[in-house]
């Protein structure tokens, strides 16, 4: 596996975890904790976007 493949898998895992966290925030927690889970899920999407944009440059 080269660097681009590893970054691709890392992007996939981060998007999957982001969706999971946002889903937990929406469906499981109805109080303030849900907002926290949603914010962390959006942060995972931002990091996945960085990994995706680094894919061809590293």
Automatic annotation (TrEMBL):
InterPro entries: CAL67264-like. The keyword Transmembrane applies. Keywords: Membrane, Transmembrane, Transmembrane helix. This is Uncharacterized protein. The chain crosses the membrane at residues 7-27, 33-52. The keyword Membrane applies.
